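Severity: low
Component: inverse-folding endpoint
Summary: output formatting inconsistent between runs
Steps to reproduce: submit the following structure tokens with default settings.
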């Protein structure tokens, strides 16, 4: 579901600042976000920096926290099992990211960067993505609602977080996913295997193939470092488009010293005055 938002909109800017803050509800809830209709209004296309969002989550939610030995010959399923165990044991993750997408369908390579943070708890998972380039965007779920703010459009779309419950990526994020159950786990393709790095004990790479077909994800490659962290993720779709994500400044359990009030405040976003609010409930 989330990926349908992203794949249709990539780095496209359409500025049409409203005169004042407007809040209205769409006629129907479109869980694919392919048409955002509001009363007496034609949908506005969203910027396409979001193309990696769904694909990235699909990979990140399996690799937040990795535990892997330095043995270069470790079997992919063992690596995946350790990924799952470590992920299940952690509560939050924060990192900076740099993304780029390339392929015949996308034209020139496109890039973006920012910071993201994820939280798991007993109620519902929370997440926040802050894009700083090429445009300011905030993608946020507080466990109850999912909002997407676009500064250059002066718009924010709000929908219930429940629309994502059947989504595979959201299931992993909230603790309902399982690598062995949901993926075929294999050795990396030759082009990604990097034997010289394996020999040096620098990186190991595994390949994940969804057991249930995903409309926009053919396979995922994860690069894992000896210090037990995923540093790179490649997601390939059925058109040969590859979205890559490099992670840096990774902080595990970055929210453990925060109070519940501080955490709730962090996963709350109020858009600037004049922002058009499009509700999809």
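Observed output (run 2 of 3):
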């Amino acid at each position: 579901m989330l990926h349908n938002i992203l794949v249709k909109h990539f780095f496209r800017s359409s500025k049409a600042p409203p005169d004042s803050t407007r809040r209205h509800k769409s006629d129907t809830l479109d869980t694919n976000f392919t048409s955002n209709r509001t009363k007496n209004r034609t949908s506005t296309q969203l910027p396409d920096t979001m193309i990696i969002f769904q694909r990235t989550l699909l990979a990140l939610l399996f690799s937040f926290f990795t535990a892997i030995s330095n043995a270069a010959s470790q079997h992919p399923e063992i690596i995946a099992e350790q990924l799952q165990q470590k992920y299940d044991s952690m509560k939050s993750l924060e990192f900076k990211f740099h993304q780029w997408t390339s392929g015949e369908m996308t034209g020139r390579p496109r890039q973006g960067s920012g910071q993201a943070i994820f939280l798991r708890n007993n109620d519902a998972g929370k997440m926040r993505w802050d894009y700083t380039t090429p445009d300011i965007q905030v993608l946020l779920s507080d466990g109850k609602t999912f909002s997407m703010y676009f500064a250059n459009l002066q718009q924010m779309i709000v929908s219930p977080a429940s629309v994502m419950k059947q989504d595979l990526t959201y299931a992993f994020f909230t603790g309902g996913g399982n690598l062995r159950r949901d993926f075929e786990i294999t050795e990396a393709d030759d082009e990604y295997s990097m034997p010289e790095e394996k020999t040096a004990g620098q990186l190991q790479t595994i390949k994940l193939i969804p057991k249930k077909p995903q409309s926009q994800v053919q396979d995922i490659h994860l690069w894992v470092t000896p210090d037990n962290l995923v540093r790179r993720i490649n997601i390939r779709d059925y058109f040969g488009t590859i979205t890559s994500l490099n992670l840096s400044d990774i902080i595990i359990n970055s929210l453990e010293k925060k109070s519940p009030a501080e955490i709730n405040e962090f996963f709350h976003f109020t858009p600037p005055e004049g922002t058009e609010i499009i509700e999809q409930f």
